[in-house]
Amino acid sequence: MTSQDWQPAAMPSALPGVGNPALSVRNITKRFQRKTVVNDIDLDLFPGEVYGLIGPNGAGKTTLMSMMVGAEMPTLGEIWIEGQLFRQDQNSPQLQRCIGFLPDDYPLYDDLTVWQYLEYFARLYGISPGLRHRRIYDILELVQLSSKHHSRTTELSRGMKQRLGLARAIIHQPSVLVLDEPVSGLDPVARMEFRDIIKALQQSGMTILISSHVLSDLADFCSTIGIMELGYLVESAPLNELYNRLSRRQIFIATLGEGPALAQALDAHACVVSQTRVSDREICVEFAGDEAAAGELLRSLIAAGIPLCQFNHTREDLETIFLKHLDHKQVS
Ligand SMILES: Nc1ncnc2c1ncn2[C@@H]1O[C@H](COP(=O)(O)OP(=O)(O)OP(=O)(O)O)[C@@H](O)[C@H]1O
């Protein structure tokens, strides 16, 4: 198929109880010269969802996001915003206004103050003079830059600049916010400040797509995770489902009683895959169940009269899942 014989397909369907996607792409593909860097991807962002996009350098995350916000023209495929087909060549400013975008590199105009910078964008978005002042004031509060409103943008720290970029991206109150590596190069405190703002936006019901290499941050606030590799979206699932499916769980158990009695009680449990004896009274269990099943194991050991003094349930984190995913792909 070429872009000439492209035909729109049906509108992406709603999820029961969630509604229509706020932003969707169907069969989206991008080629630069002969190289395909985004390959036939379908993706839905549902209202209120925080979707974390991860993948190694060069996987195609920025290119995918740029197409989703209309900044890059797809070679093939469709973009749907709030249930309407978005055609970049037909210039749909009302659809583009539904989206806020913070690219990984964006200009801050050096000769402007923080307030002037936001005012400039508020004017560009046509926010009326009556509303403008209040909007800028509220957004500066949200991004914790109120005290800097007279400062020139050159005087801001990197973390403050990122928060100002975020303020610019939401000045027109978009329903969907797309953030490309917003915390890259920030120190832990600046990252935490940024995370708190994302959580506040999430609580206000904004739909958010965010890419990052800091997976612990994403695990903290994302509801869904997508993994990209070599232009493909190889995984896309709710975070909890990923943990249940891909994360190895272990339980460290210690007893004040006899080790063999503990081992025997563990043998009887269906989710105990293997046991490793750590000491006479300590066993590490590889566990195939979820948190509810671990709770059930704990109750059954107590009911069996095992005098437990430790029961420590751990699961592999998002970073480990991601690295295992890459290893697996390289082996297979
Ligand atoms: N304008 C362009 N012309 C040619 N190739 C490009 C262009 N933009 C991106 N690419 C290539 O597309 C591939 C995907 O790049 P992209 O920036 O989308 O990856 P990414 O997953 O965002 O990487 P990173 O995590 O390093 O930001 C890379 O091989 C890159 O070199």
Automatic annotation (TrEMBL):
Keywords: ATP-binding, Nucleotide-binding, Transport. Transmembrane segments: none annotated. One of its GO terms (molecular function) is ATP binding. Residues 23-255 form the ABC transporter domain. Belongs to the ABC transporter superfamily. This is ABC transporter ATP-binding protein.
